[in-house]
Specification:
mainly alpha
């Protein structure tokens, strides 16, 4: 399946790690900031064990304008199984059109990009001083509101929410269309974020094209060992040498680095 349909948010839903109230909101089309996640969630939730969630997902699908859905399905990177799902419901893929985008196909909440930040504490004008810090404001939000802030909010909010103890919230940061490669570089260095978040970064082919991200994950003692060991052979010699003697690195990773160094010396002789 296309990488866009293997996002951290979708994977959490697939693994059954999401509470019913959050699944219901997703079934109503509220959570996803992008069309591919919105459709992926709806297709998944129409088979949910909860009949109310199944019904909500079906109703949301029925409410999507057929013309917009047809244009989206015509995009070349939409997986065959998604197209087949809607073809069985009488919606055929059409030409994507010159303005093809990944904006949500339906927004029941009618939210703008900034709404997630204002759900608690009221709206603020550009000259108003916030009455509470971002941390305090986020701490007063429920899980759904924090997920929306993670996906639609500011960089400052993402920096805080990547540490959220709720896995669905922290992984929503990595599903945000706003998260930048520079932010991911910073996350990859953090030993204070969850192993799940580091595992998601370490499985992203797009992010691993960035050498700094791959190196940071390998040197991060919190990164799952299986992930780190897969990168050692891809590091430059200088970094492998440093890795082999770093006291903070798990022993299996250091042992592999030493073996690579030894093999390199043997080839030179």
């Amino acid at each position: 399946m296309d990488d866009r349909y293997q996002t951290p948010l979708l994977d959490c839903f697939r693994r059954g790690e999401v509470a019913p109230d959050v699944r219901m909101l997703a079934a109503q089309g509220v959570l996803a900031p992008r069309a591919h996640e919105q459709l992926g969630l709806l297709v998944l939730l129409i088979g949910d064990a909860d009949p109310a969630i199944r019904a909500a997902a079906a109703a949301t699908i029925e409410s999507i304008p057929p013309a917009a859905l047809s244009r989206f399905l015509g995009q070349p990177d939409v997986p065959d199984e998604i197209r087949a799902f809607f073809e069985r419901r009488g919606i055929q893929a059409g030409p994507p059109g010159p303005d093809a985008s990944d904006a949500p196909l339906i927004d029941p909440a009618g939210e703008s990009e900034g709404d997630a930040s204002d759900e608690v504490g009221g709206q603020r004008g550009p000259e108003d001083k916030p009455r509470q810090s971002t941390v305090q404001r986020l701490s007063r939000m429920n899980v759904t509101q924090r997920m929306k802030a993670a996906m639609r909010g500011s960089r400052e909010e993402r920096e805080i929410l990547i540490h959220d103890p709720n896995k669905v919230v922290s992984l929503s940061v990595l599903s945000s269309p706003k998260v930048s490669e520079q932010e991911v570089e910073a996350y990859a260095k953090m030993a204070s974020i969850s192993e799940d978040a580091l595992r998601v970064i370490g499985r992203s082919r797009a992010w691993l094209k960035n050498y700094t991200i791959m190196r940071s994950l390998t040197f991060n003692p919190k990164t799952p060992v299986a992930i780190s060991m897969g990168f050692v052979n891809r590091l430059v010699e200088k970094d492998v040498r440093t890795l082999a003697t770093d006291r903070n690195i798990p022993e299996p990773v250091k042992v592999l680095a030493r073996k690579i160094m030894q093999a390199g010396k043997s080839r030179k002789h």
